[in-house]
Amino acid sequence: MSTAESQVSLAVSTVIFALRPSASGEPELVLPLVRRIREPYEGQWALPGGPLNSNEDLAEAASRTLLETTALEPRYLEQLYAFGQLDRSPDDRVVSIVYWALVAGDEADRAIQSENVQWFTADNLPELAFDHNLIVDYALWRLRTKLEYSRIAHGFLGETFTLAQLREVYEVVLRKPVDPGNFRRMVEASGTVVATGERLAGTPHRPPQLYRYNTSIDLTDQGPLSRLSAPRTPASTRGDNS
Amino acid sequence: MSTAESQVSLAVSTVIFALRPSASGEPELVLPLVRRIREPYEGQWALPGGPLNSNEDLAEAASRTLLETTALEPRYLEQLYAFGQLDRSPDDRVVSIVYWALVAGDEADRAIQSENVQWFTADNLPELAFDHNLIVDYALWRLRTKLEYSRIAHGFLGETFTLAQLREVYEVVLRKPVDPGNFRRMVEASGTVVATGERLAGTPHRPPQLYRYNTSIDLTDQGPLSRLSAPRTPASTRGDNS
């Protein structure tokens, strides 16, 4: 065992996506970033994250650090990739295990917003600290690929939603129009949503039906990894880390 | 920054798949395992791997440790997942970044084989050290999923191959028969193989055509990660690690 080994430190970061109204009122894909308050990259924006504590699981560390920095508790959390290039941090060797997460719009509204925590348009970011632009690009690619063959669109929505709201997730994330009639037939054939019998409040004339997700179907197929219980509760609520 | 952080150590392991003839002569999906010569799990079989050195990339560490333990240099290497459950190692906290690799049959024949390095049938493993059974199960799931929508089957083959050899990869890995006529049409339509104009030597009557992979097409689509050059040359050939 080499002594060089002990010089590698381990961090966890998370790319958090949400849909929120832009200045024009149209929804857009956004993510929260944290301004760095120390070197390296002091003053630049970076993904929320922090070092891994020895007494917490990787997904727990992702949940904890994003709760601490943004107050967000995502509906969907999945490991993205471990980034470990030699030159990714100028002063020391850091391997970052990166998660990606989806939060519903109403949850996103509850996020901390301050001078040092802000939402950015996912496809129009400034130059970020470390290799975080590459990490966001890869997370965007994974999100768009996975939206097409899984049910993760529901990670952006609340408990109940209209079919128009579900369709809007696809349109905004994939940046292309989706035909309403085809979409309705496709969703109804998939069995992934259930009509609640209720209708959207506050809409005149014929208010649209509300649906909920059919929770007997997982949002994604993780194969044998589903045997690892992915904790959704941040470590901070389960005991003191000190 | 918590002091607990420094108690986490980082290792790299690799699940290496190859197709080799079984006792009956039929090819089967196999992987090499290394017998542990120290506690914990002394005497049990485990995935090849070792600690990450601070001066090597993650993929380099995967290549180096598997060259050191098995003498193998894979045709295909991809990051699988970072495993970091609290209870995965009894004595200390180890986060393992796991890669998976494919080697061609002739390369597999060159692997070290000894009392402590042996090939096992992938679907019939003994109880392995740590969480390595779960890791292999997940790698098998990823291999089978990815074989269906990418060109990674070529990772099991040499420079040139017959269509029957390519079809055999699908049949053995997916454990189901594949219709030869449909398969030929599907492969020819995909543009992923190129006829070499040569024929398999040593075959009587009409020897089958030899093909090679169309290297203008990547074996898989890694999206923005392709910007990270995945080194295929183990670190040990590029300089001394000491």
Could you provide a short overview of the structure?
2 copies of one chain form a homodimer. By secondary structure, chain A is of the alpha+beta class. Chain A has 5 helices and 10 strands; from the N terminus they run ββββαββαβαβααββ.
Number of helices of chain A: 5
Largest interface: A-B, 39 and 38 residues
- Quaternary assembly: homodimer
**Helix percent band of chain A:** 10-25%
The first-level CATH class name of the largest domain in chain A: Alpha Beta
Pfam family, one (chains A, B): WHD_NrtR
Domain Nudix hydrolase (chains A, B): 9-144
Region (Disordered) (chains A, B): 221-242
Protein name (chains A, B): NUDIX domain protein
Topology record:
Two copies of one chain form a homodimer.
Chain A: E1 8-21, E2 27-35, E3 45-46, E4 49-51, H1 58-70, E5 76-83, E6 93-102, H2 105-109, E7 117-121, H3 132-149, E8 160-161, H4 163-174, H5 180-190, E9 193-199, E10 209-213
Parallel strand pairs in A: 1-6
Antiparallel strand pairs in A: 1-2, 1-4, 2-3, 2-7, 5-6, 8-10, 9-10
What do you see in this structure?
Chains A, B: This is NUDIX domain protein. Chains A, B: InterPro entries: NUDIX_hydrolase-like_dom_sf, NUDIX_hydrolase_dom, WH-like_DNA-bd_sf, WH_DNA-bd_sf, WHD_NrtR. Chains A, B: Residues 221-242 are annotated as: Disordered. Chains A, B: Residues 9-144 form the Nudix hydrolase domain. Two copies of one chain form a homodimer. Chain A has 242 residues and is an alpha+beta fold. The first copy, chain A, has two domains: 3-148, Nucleoside Triphosphate Pyrophosphohydrolase (Alpha-Beta Complex); 152-213, Winged helix-like DNA-binding domain superfamily/Winged helix DNA-binding domain (Arc Repressor Mutant, subunit A), CATH 1.10.10. Chain A has helices spanning 58-70, 105-109, 132-149, 163-174, 180-190; strands at 8-21, 27-35, 45-46, 49-51, 76-83, 93-102, 117-121, 160-161, 193-199, 209-213. In chain A, strands 1, 2, 3, 4, 5, 6 and 7 form a seven-stranded mixed beta sheet that branches. A three-stranded antiparallel beta sheet of chain A has the order 8-10-9. In chain A, a hairpin with a 5-residue loop joins β1 and β2 (27-35). Chain A starts with 7 loop residues before the first strand and ends in a 29-residue tail after the last strand. At the A-B interface, β1, β5, β6 and α3 of A face β1, β5, β6 and α3 of B.
